[in-house]
Write a structure and sequence with these properties.
The protein has a single domain, classed as Ribokinase (UDP-N-acetylmuramoyl-L-alanine:D-glutamate ligase), CATH 3.40.1190. The strands form three sheets. It has a nine-stranded mixed beta sheet with strand order 5-4-1-8-9-12-13-14-15. A four-stranded mixed beta sheet has the order 3-2-6-7. Strands 10-11 form a two-stranded antiparallel ribbon. The chain has helices at 44-54, 67-70, 74-80, 144-148, 182-186, 203-207, 249-264, 270-283, 295-307; strands at residues 21-26, 28-31, 39-42, 59-65, 84-89, 95-101, 104-111, 130-133, 155-159, 165-167, 173-175, 189-193, 214-218, 224-228, 231-235. Strand 2 and strand 3 (39-42) form a beta hairpin. Helix 1 (44-54) packs across helix 7 (249-264), helix 7 (249-264) runs antiparallel to helix 8 (270-283) and helix 8 (270-283) crosses helix 9 (295-307). The protein is of the alpha/beta class.
Length: 314
Amino acid sequence: MSEASGVYDGSPAGSGGPLDLIVVGAASRDVTPEDPRGWRLGGAATYCSLTAARLGLRVGCVMGVDGPAADAEELASLEAAGVLVHRVALERGPVFENIERDGHRRQRWLSKCDRVPAAALPAEWRGTRGWLLGPVAGEVPPEWAKVASTRKDACVAVGWQGMLREFAADGWVKRVDPARSAILGVAGLVCASVDDVPPGVGLAELRAFAPRAAIFLTAGDRGGLAMRDERLVRYPAVPAPRVVDATGAGDVFLAALMVEWLLNGDVATSRALRFAAAAGSCAVAGAGIAGVPTEAQVAERLRLRASSGSPPGA
């Protein structure tokens, strides 16, 4: 891979060998006055690919980027962690203003997003076992379902949030009812925040849209809910010593679940939930992707949790 271009040229990721995971989505630009650019790079594709690489997977990322995002310094951090970033040029990329109030998030949109076509996938990456489709603004079209499920043993995860949004004319991002999708139909793991789901819609109702998946609804420092094989589990959060920026914590949680699935075969088990909750807890300690943890940091957070006498959780 050329660090200047970030385009895959056939070289292996991480410690070498075939890729473990392909992440697909657009990089969002999240408005903040704390960065001289006026924004930080975010989005599920950014957070999930970096998390998975730092937790031990060989990762390729098909990332839609608008002009400013294409040269963002954050992409160098992904590449330094071993992520092979295949940039897909977009005329429009998502730009959000995230507003946190009383532990809940609202978003304003400043730019919509073009689609990231499946034809953008490098031929060398076809046939990878692990896939994480992470739309933030509906930019991952249904054609990715066929690409991701080529292998019979494919492991497909979906960040549902970008499929549960509409960009309303008043500038606010509004929740919409879930709809059937080819992408959800092939998913074995689906994750969303309780803030992404319309009021009154629970896990039982969501099951109809993702019939094969373990489904997770995250609720920040309140933990969350998981459903696998019709069994409903409430899991606790792992306390964070301090919270700097909660943006991306749900994406880190999802990516950590994917790591457990691919490396250990665990989906919605107590072990997987503890690991993912600890990763999400680490993520809030830094601004933007600076909070994305390493494997050692997650292990230390779990050790501290155990030594504090916290209950084992789900």
